[in-house]
Amino acid sequence: MAAPVPEPAPEPILEVRGLVKHYPLTSGVLFKKRTGAVKAVDGVDFVLRRGETLGIVGESGCGKSTVARLLCSLERPTAGRIRYRGEDITRLSGKALKAVRRNIQMVFQDPYTSLNPRMTVGDIVGEPFEIHPEAAPKGDRRRRVKELLDVVGLNPEYVNRYPHQFSGGQRQRIGIARGLALRPEIIVADEPVSALDVSVQAQVINLMERLQAEFGLSYVFIAHDLSVVRHISDRVAVMYLGRIVEMGTDEEIYEHATHPYTQALLSAVPVPDPEARERRERIVLSGDVPSPAAIPSGCRFRTRCFKARQRCAVEVPALAVPEWFRSEGGPAAHDSACHFAAEREPPPGPAPRREPDGHGAANAQ
Ligand code: ADP
Ligand code: MG
Q1: For residues 333 and 345, which has the higher predicted lDDT (pLDDT)?
Q2: Residue located nearest, by CA, to atom 11 of ligand 1
């Protein structure tokens, strides 16, 4: 028998390169003059692999929803590319655009406002079939809608009820059923549990995990809180002012964060164990998030950073694997956009792997 071949990484289903969305700022009523731009998304790169979940986390206003709308082709980027199965989808129109939209569906944040209160649950879940009639013959839609309700754990007999007759968690299940109707390959969930009670959040996340396995879905799962995405994400990207500042596997991000912003966010995540809470150092960032219409020069995080130095004001840090990390054989899949990402304690645990000849050995100590 041949030696087992290592399993190849799943193919990228979505590749995002240099994604930018600027909203022009104008003054004057009659003769509008462009006076600047809100840089909502300002250079975002990532890859989503088939079947994986990429968590995107960041404070309100950092550009998460704008990224979500761009991924779902609900808006066109100012610059950059989104490749879906290798094809650039940012310039599509007509039929081709419609076909792509069918395969990349959005689940919205607030199940209280995203469902039309005057439509029955059946009409809401079946609405995608009105936009894409080819997806299901008319005579089969009712059955498909009931099946979708069943799949998300709702009683199919509720098909004639209205949104207000459901709890928040049930309403988000309705939103998820609608997102699944066209059997998409990718679901972009924009803060799907942020409006829900903590006790209900876990149920909805568990449902989404089950559906992912059942239908082979790839997820972009957005949240403003690192603790929410931890369980569901394979990898996590942390956003600040329109950019990803750190990205890596969930273990890398939660156990070995190197970007000061991620470290600050992690220090604010609630810890149930009181002893661990005692031991933990809380990092309080200075000042407020700058306006996306006036992004600081160099590193955009520097105005709030406890490590900031002269270099940070003049040089934009690239999102890359820190040099220090590479030299110690750290994982290649952990990017940090910080000039001083190397300045931290070595990770606890076994000593870093060293080359037999001593080359590439740790230069720390
Ligand atoms: P998040 O989802 O992370 O809270 P958003 O993507 O909604 O962030 O917004 C990012 C920034 O872009 C915010 O400053 C917001 O006010 C601005 N913005 C979003 N959409 C528009 C728009 N259509 N026109 C102008 N500014 C916008
Ligand atoms: Mg948002």
Answers
A1: 333
A2: 40
* Residue whose CA is at the smallest distance from ligand 1 atom 22: 23
Q: Which atom of ligand 1 is nearest to the CA of 292?
A: 14
pLDDT at 283: 87
pLDDT (tens digit per residue) in 6-28: 666 778 999 999 999 999 988 77
Our CA dihedral for 161, 167, 205, 209, rounded to 10 degrees, sits at -20
Indicate the pairing of strand 53-57 with strand 235-240. Answer: parallel
Residue partners of 138: CB distance under 8 A and separation at least 6:
none
Ligand 1 contacts CB of residue 23 (under 6 A): yes
292 Cα to the center of ligand 2, angstroms? 14
The runs of H, that is alpha helices, within the chain are 64-71, 94-103, 121-131, 141-151, 168-180, 198-215, 226-230, 250-255, 260-267, 274-279, 310-314, 323-327
* Nearest atom, ligand 1, residue 21 CA: 12
pTM: 0.89
Read out DSSP for 42-88? EEEEEEEETT-EEEEE--TTSSHHHHHHHHTTSS--SEEEEEETTEE
Torsion of CA 110, 197, 177, 119, to 10 degrees: -50
Angle between helices 141-151 and 168-180 (to 10 degrees): 130
**Do 212 and 223 touch, CB atoms closer than 8 A?**
no
Domain assignments of the chain as residue spans, ordered by start: 257-365
Q: Is the CB of 109 under 6 A from ligand 1?
A: no
Residue 63 in contact with ligand 1 by CB distance below 6 A = yes
Q: Residue 60 CA: which ligand 1 atom is closest?
A: 4
Q: Is 195 a pocket residue for ligand 1 (Cβ < 6 Å)?
A: no
Which helix (H) or strand (E) element contains residue 219? strand 218-223
Q: Which residues surround ligand 2, an ion (CB under 5 A)?
A: 64-65
Ligand 1 mean position to 85 CA, how many Å? 28
* Contact (CB, 8 A) for 183 and 101: no
CA pair distance 45, 38, nearest whole angstrom: 19
